[in-house]
Amino acid sequence: MTSIGILGAGRVGANLAGKLSAAGHRVTLGVRNTEETRPLVAGIAPRIALADQRTAARTADIVINATPGDTSLDRLAGLRAELSGKLLLDVSNATREDGDGLPGDLCYPGSSLAERLQAALPDTHVVKTLNTMLFMVMTAPETLAVPPTAYVSGNDERAKKTVTGLLGDLGWQPAWIEDLGGITTARATEAMILMVPHILRRHGFTPFAVSLAR
């Protein structure tokens, strides 16, 4: 059993918390207001603990960034001490919203949120994954008609191996996981978000993933 702190209790964070808790991990959701969030979490998994984000980061073995990508860098840079020596699994995309609220331009063209996080948190092992799909696919990849791909980017091989194990707990088969290499490869997967709003405008929130076909 691993202690996992998830920063962000929106659809992404809550979805991951429910599945990882069901897989036997000890999960703490890091939120801004525990009392407002408690009723929402109770309907997902009563075993999930709630704490402020600093406490969730400090007390966990692994931390997942599920905060809005456009504010993640400032938010997590302030947790440098709490994240030191830990694995940070980043699933967010940093974009500016378009007029209809869907992702528009990238916040870090020519770079990526994951790279910026790694630079701001040099004592933390940042691994990027699960950012190329709708949130429901993250925890139920087997529901798609075609096997999806979970891309993995990170500089530390041991950290990526740990993340691969967590992906298995979320339902990902080894053949569906593609290790792209170092953290700089995250700029490729983060750029894929630019395709997503066009798909959503045509098909709505039907589950899909941007995947590799062989």
* Beta-strand percentage range: 15-25%
First-residue to last-residue Cα separation = 35 Å
Helix content: 25-40%
Radius of gyration: 16 Å
Low-confidence stretches at least 5 residues in length (pLDDT < 50)? none
Biggest beta-sheet profile: 8 strands, mixed
Tally of separate helices: 10
How do the SSEs run, as a string of H and E? EHEHEHEHHEEEHEHEHEHH
- Class by helix and strand content? alpha/beta
Strand order of the largest sheet: 3-2-1-4-5-8-9-10
Number of strands: 10
What integer is the average pLDDT?
93
Task: Identify the overall geometry.
Answer: globular
List the helices and strands and how they pair.
Elements: E1 3-7, H1 11-22, E2 26-31, H2 34-42, E3 49-52, H3 53-59, E4 62-65, H4 69-77, H5 80-83, E5 87-90, E6 95-97, E7 103-106, H6 113-120, E8 125-128, H7 135-138, E9 150-154, H8 157-169, E10 177-181, H9 186-191, H10 196-203
Keywords:
two-stranded antiparallel sheet; 214 residues; 21% strand; 10 helices; 8-stranded mixed beta sheet; alpha/beta; 10 strands
